[in-house]
Amino acid sequence: GTDGHQFPPFVNKKDQEVLWLFNTVPCRSIFMKYSKKAKIEGISTLEYSVPLDGANINKKINVCTCKELSDLVASNDTCVKMMDDDTLDISDCDITSCYDGLQDISVCQGAPT
User: Fold this and answer.
1) C-alpha 36 chain-centroid distance
2) Which residues make beta-bridge pairs with 22?
3) Which of 2, 36, 33 is nearest to 16 (CA)?
4) Separation of alpha carbons 44 and 40, rounded Å
5) What is the pTM of this model?
């Protein structure tokens, strides 16, 4: 699917391999990575997509989407361990309010809880 976001002309995949946008549905900024060249009605375009693990809460850039995990990271809780440069091992953490790839948007969207 698509949400119809467009960027100005002359985006360069070499200089802009990652693009950021603010999406109102999850109420947060999210990144997309260059995936391929495409043509739309004969017009050359660049296609960007969110990586499969782009919304996982155990990615360092997504920690803030889960308050419970964010609090554990801020307090240097020993249950949080580094797996690599951008991924956290949270398997020893007792997190109940959010799950990999999911976040609670009810507060952001004003939905009743």
Assistant:
1) 19
2) 29
3) 33
4) 7
5) 0.63
Q: DSSP for the chain, please give it.
A: --------S---TTT-SEEEEEETTTTEEEEEEEEEEEEETTEEEEEEE--TTTT-TTBGGGGGG-HHHHHHHHTT-TT-EE-SSSBEE-TTS---S-BTTB---HHHHT---
Looking at residue 21, its pLDDT comes to 83
What are the 10-residue block averages of pLDDT along the chain, 113 residues in total? 68 86 75 90 88 82 84 92 87 82 60 53
Contacts of 49 (CB under 8 A, 6+ apart): 32, 33, 35
